[in-house]
Design brief:
The protein is mainly alpha-helical. The chain is built from 13 helices and three strands; from the N terminus they run E-E-H-H-E-H-H-H-H-H-H-H-H-H-H-H. The longest helix has 20 residues, at about 85-105.
């Protein structure tokens, strides 16, 4: 009977799909690895000899690279939320390193890209987490690695740029605008990131967004309000003047619902 005893979470990959050539073993994640990941410590993993993507907690919560927890969050989400810059860099490096090995075995080239852009059950990316929790260094790492992060909206319809503007975080919003060629401005209820910049009275951010995409002056939210409606309502004269520059005067003729 001892020979038939099952060992949960420990299984030779060669027993799956009759693939004897694979020798990877999936095991429990030792407490020291779990604690190091949770505390943002990178040094212990530098000396780990095995494949990081096969480490899991006993309840399958996550592996150190791409395996999601019950909320669909990968370790990259967690590290970005907590602002662990070194861990974020290390996870990205590990994902890219694993992708290089996969390419040698003939895997598709987009695998690492998909792993980096995995979303949670709320459809948040790691970039959403970094923006929401005000970690500008992590934001820069993620969008320099893949500017397309800035084009993904979550389940609430919020793009990372919209989140930054709604939280009146000029520095992060400016960073996204500077690095990304054409970031998404989308937000819930038809509002854009530029709507939020105007509502908060941030003339500097409003100017940066208009310089990037002046066509947004005609965008209306679900109530039919344009940027000019909000600027007028809140008596923001400098922004009103900015919105009525030569190329945008037609926005003055748009009525709300």
């Amino acid at each position: 009977m001892a020979d038939s005893q099952a060992f949960p979470e420990t299984q030779l990959a060669s027993e799956i799909n009759d693939q004897p050539e694979r020798k990877d073993i999936i095991t429990f994640m030792d407490a020291k690895w779990y604690n190091a990941a949770a505390e943002g410590q990178i040094n212990p993993f530098k000396h780990y000899a095995g494949p990081l993507d096969l480490l899991r907690t006993p309840n399958k919560k996550y592996s150190p690279t791409s395996e999601p927890n019950i909320k669909g969050e990968t370790p990259l989400h967690i590290a970005a939320r907590l602002g662990h810059k070194n861990i974020v860099e290390f996870l990205i490096h590990s994902i890219k390193k694993a992708q290089f090995k996969d390419l040698e075995r003939g895997a598709e080239a987009s695998t690492s890209d998909k792993m980096l852009k995995k979303t949670s059950t709320d459809e948040d990316t790691a970039l959403h987490e970094a923006v929401r929790n005000n970690h500008p260094q992590v934001v820069e790492i993620l969008i320099r690695e893949n500017p397309e992060f800035a084009n993904i909206a979550n389940a609430a319809g919020e793009s990372p740029l919209y989140l930054a503007a709604a939280r009146e975080n000029n520095s992060i919003a400016s960073k996204i605008l500077k690095i990304c060629l054409s970031p998404a401005y989308t937000g819930p209820n038809g509002r854009t990131a530029l709507h939020e910049a105007v509502i908060s009275g941030d003339a500097d951010l409003t100017r940066k967004m208009l310089d990037k995409n002046s066509s947004l002056t005609r965008e209306q939210d679900k109530e039919g309000w344009t940027l000019l409606h909000y600027a007028s309502y809140f008596n923001l004269l400098p922004i009103v003047e900015m919105l009525l520059e030569d190329d945008n005067k037609s926005a003055a003729y748009i009525g709300e619902n």
